[in-house]
Amino acid sequence: MTATITDVKENILLFYQAMLDDPYHRYRSWEHCYTFFQQHYPFPNDDQLDTATLHLAFYLASWGMYRGSSQLLQKNYRVHTSILKIILKKEYAKLFDISFDNGRSVSPVVRLIFDLVQELRHAYSGLGISPTTTLVTKVLLGTYGCIPAYDRLFIEGVKFWKIMPDEYQPKFPALFGVNSYLGLVDFYHCHEEDILAVQAVTSQKSIKYPIMKLIDMYFWNLGYQSYGENDDLE
Fold first, then answer.
1. Angle at 172 between CA 170 and CA 174, to 5 degrees
2. Mean pLDDT across the stretch 110-135?
3. Dihedral of alpha carbons 75, 212, 224, 204, sign
4. Nearest CA to 91 among 42, 52, 138?
5. Where are the domains of the chain?
6. How far apart are CA 207 and CA 82, in angstroms?
7. Cis before 42 (ω within 30)
8. Which phi and psi angles does 41 have, rounded to 5°?
9. Above 90 in pLDDT, residue 166?
């Protein structure tokens, strides 16, 4: 195992390079899904909603949510249609373009995110799907790009970050919750220059990646390296 790369800019670019090297890489499924939502919201007809549902389902499959133990494996893609109707409610539209310029003043938006999380959990439960944190946060990452996907490697990355000796780095809970999310906002402000530099690269090469997607890439890749580069842990 190689040494874990903790430099923020270098680590995110290492993740992003995999997509530049392979235009058909599974990581690009997020890009296709997110771009479709950005370009076609609010999906004025059933055909566009159906295409959006396909994008979401394939992105989730590419990112490990259709494995044998998943109840999603027994469903077709349209199980997500009612989920998208919740996501597309007008009150959530502001999640498309969150500004973190004012630090923790984003708290009203954070409350909106967690209100939506609760709606999605309830809706998936009603469909016979276990509303895991991993599933719900991956859905929001693929649609609004407003929150990282709290899967195992992302959490391992945050845990690794927390034991780093630099006392000036923000420490925050690894498990999903409001305090964890606000900690990620602090992390962004601590590393704003590096994160915006990577965002500029993605804007040139493909699309402008949202801040929380870049943070997701950093901690996922940190967890991937520090845990032993076992891809089965995603």
1. 135
2. 96
3. positive
4. 42
5. 8-226
6. 28
7. yes
8. -55, 135
9. no
Three-class SS state of 176: coil
The answer to whether residues 28 and 15 touch, using CB atoms and an 8 Å cutoff, is: no
- Check pLDDT > 70 for residue 126: yes
**DSSP characters over 46-64:** HHHHHHHHHHHHHHHHHTT
> Dihedral, CA atoms, 32, 35, 37, 38, nearest 10 degrees?
180
Sequence-distant (≥ 6) Cβ neighbours of residue 34 within 8 angstroms: 141, 142, 143, 145, 207, 210, 213
Least confident of 37-41, 52-56, 209-213, 228-232: 228-232
DSSP states of 94-134 as a string? Answer: GGGG---TTGGGGHHHHHHHHHHHHHHHHHHHHTT----HH
d(CA 159, CA 107): 24
Q: What is the residue type of 137?
A: T
Q: How many helices (H) and strands (E) does the chain have?
A: 10, 0
Identify whether the C-beta of residue 216 lies closer than 8 Å to the C-beta of residue 155. Answer: no
Q: So what's the pLDDT on residue 1?
A: 40
* Token code pair at residue 232: 């089965």
Q: Does this model's pTM top 0.85?
A: yes
Q: Of the candidates 104, 113, 51, which has an alpha carbon nearest to the alpha carbon of residue 80?
A: 51
